[in-house]
Amino acid sequence: MSTIQFKTNINCSGCVAKATPALNQVAGVHNWQVDTANPQKILTVNTSTSAQAIIAALQAIGFKASIQE
């Protein structure tokens, strides 16, 4: 399992509520959180799946995500 961080446009509790089902359904996602106080809206995911699968799940519901470097 690895921890991956993403820059997102998930910026409020409503956005977190919308993203929750999508992130919870991605196979291998065990724990995640979004730092909405951070200007880059950092999503931290503990997962055994690929970063691309997480990005695709978020894009499917209208959010943007890119790997935080």
TrEMBL record:
Q: Which part of the chain is the HMA domain? A: 1-66
Give the GO molecular function terms.
Answer: metal ion binding
**What PROSITE patterns does the entry give?**
HMA_2 (PS50846)
What top-level branch of life does the organism fall under? Bacteria
Looking up InterPro entries in the UniProt record yields: HMA_dom (IPR006121), HMA_dom_sf (IPR036163)
Q: What is this protein called?
A: Copper chaperone
